[in-house]
Write a structure and sequence with these properties.
Keywords: Cell membrane, Glycosyltransferase, Membrane, Transferase. With about 240 residues, this protein is of the alpha/beta class. It has a single domain, classed as Spore Coat Polysaccharide Biosynthesis Protein SpsA, Chain A. Helices cover about 45% and strands about 20% of the residues. It is built from twelve helices and eight strands. It has an eight-stranded mixed beta sheet with strand order 3-2-1-4-7-6-8-5. Strand 2, helix 4 and strand 3 form a beta-alpha-beta unit. It is globular and about 45 Å long. The protein starts with a helix and ends with a helix.
Length: about 240
């Protein structure tokens, strides 16, 4: 029979989440409800904590997200900054960084838990949804490139042990390529677990700005980042191109 103190400890352990989902938000009123509601099912709600970090939305994002999040935090705008703020609040041993326009596959928590028995971090395959006929090709290219290089994008649902994320110093405080920069450091700890289950992510960037134009832009920016051009300069070029 456990002692009273042991019983309290067991009860507390059962209440602690297995996974902290961190979602950076900026003017996502159109999609935030659909992003959060699937995470609030009775089974999921007992195992995860949902942390929404708003970067100064001027729409109804905060109002819509507040009842659907365990924590709603305010932060200066910038995905890296917002995700670091969320990670500081997280209480689970595993972090999942999830964009507001990305949906998890069925059984995501179980697959993450299994992957982290052999890896320190990982990501999902991706399926981009939208109007452009190029999106299946873009999705295939993203998945293939990630397997070859060990680098994931934020759209792929990057998950990582909290201790590993902290040891790596979190996201670099930069306005672009923060996901690539983190992955480069994480690969020093372990190669990623490349899960074949697909997150469903919005292809709105390709639909709005043109698929071929966006593909060329992103490859050019990634190449220039690899060549040592600063993320600040690339962020300006990205804004100008859009």
């Amino acid at each position: 029979m456990p002692t009273l103190q042991e019983g309290r400890s067991l009860s507390l352990a059962k209440q602690l989440p297995r996974l902290s989902i961190i979602m950076p938000v900026l003017n996502e009123a159109a999609s935030i409800k659909n992003a959060l509601e699937p995470l609030r099912t009775p089974n999921a709600a007992q195992q995860i904590e949902v942390i929404v970090v708003d970067g100064g939305s001027s729409d109804d994002s905060v109002h819509i997200a507040r009842p659907l999040a365990d924590h709603l935090l305010n932060s200066p705008a910038g995905r890296a900054t917002q995700m670091n703020v969320g990670a500081q609040q997280a209480s689970a041993p595993t972090l999942l960084f999830l964009h507001a326009d990305t949906r998890l596959p069925e059984g995501a928590m179980e697959q993450i838990a299994q992957a982290l028995t052999t890896h320190a971090w990982g990501r999902f395959d991706i399926q981009l949804n939208g109007h452009s006929g190029w999106l299946p090709v873009v999705s295939w290219m993203m998945n293939k490139r990630s397997r070859l290089t060990g680098i994931a994008t934020g759209d792929q649902g990057i998950f990582v042990r909290t201790s590993t994320f902290q040891a790596m110093g979190g996201f670099a405080e930069q306005p672009l390529m923060e996901d690539i920069e983190l992955c480069k450091r994480l690969t020093r700890a372990s190669p990623p677990a490349c899960l074949t289950a697909k997150v469903i992510s919005s292809g709105r960037r390709w639909d709005q700005h043109g698929a071929l134009k966006t593909i060329c832009l992103m490859w050019r920016l990634r190449y220039r980042y690899w060549r040592g051009v600063s993320a600040t300069q690339l962020a300006k070029e990205y804004r100008d191109a859009r």
